[in-house]
Write a structure and sequence with these properties.
The N and C termini lie far apart (44 Å). The protein has three helices and four strands, in the order αααββββ. It is rod-shaped. Helix content is 38%, strand content 18%. It is of the alpha+beta class. A four-stranded antiparallel beta sheet has the order 1-2-3-4, with no helix packed on it.
Length: 102
Amino acid sequence: MRFSLRSMLMTITVLSVMLFVVKFLFDVVAGSVIPYSQLQQLVEDMSASEVESMLGSPAQRNGQTWIYERWGNQGWVEIDFDEPGKFLSYNDESAYPAQPPK
């Protein structure tokens, strides 16, 4: 079987596109709900409005706990506030929790 340069380049192109699509889908489905860099910017006593401006609106608000979810991801991130509405902590329950960059 003889391969021409054109068919070889076409095969490489198709495989590259497929790899890009698989990587994109993995990031959407299995990546962290909120990137580590954003979670690290949360500081104690931040107001709820500051947290929302940084992370966007949560999927759910249960009292002093906000829950962030992402379509296709089985996990979530919980953001906890104290009674006056100041940030206390977060709990990353993502399928693949946010990790510090290597």
